[in-house]
Design brief:
Layout (H helix, E strand, L loop, with lengths): L9 E9 L2 E7 L10 H14 L5 E11 L2 E8 L5 E5 L1
Antiparallel strand pairs: 1-2, 1-3, 3-4, 4-5
Length: 88
């Protein structure tokens, strides 16, 4: 079987959570590495914590894409730097 040269469309975004519940999502460019967006995401977290200090805030940089019908997910925690991956 010959596989055509196909472009995989990725989606990348910053996910803001309060006490584990997603409250805000912001699309970001898919160019470069996920870690390239760490400074902006860390700034976003600091701004949120400053104006709403009582929340239990967290921010992740996430991306997803489909390849051969399989959905891939990557989540980068901006505080710990831990990268989680899953496939569905």
């Amino acid at each position: 079987m010959v596989r055509e040269n196909m472009t995989v469309k990725k989606t990348r975004y910053i996910s803001v959570r309060n006490d584990g519940e997603e409250t805000y999502v912001e699309n970001i460019p898919v160019t470069g590495r996920m870690r390239d967006h760490l400074p902006a995401a860390k700034l976003r977290l600091r701004e949120i914590q400053r104006v709403m200090p009582l929340g239990k805030w967290s921010v992740t940089i996430e991306q997803q894409w489909k390849d051969s019908g399989i959905t891939h997910f990557q989540m980068l925690d901006i505080v710990s730097g831990k990268l989680q991956e899953s496939v569905l």
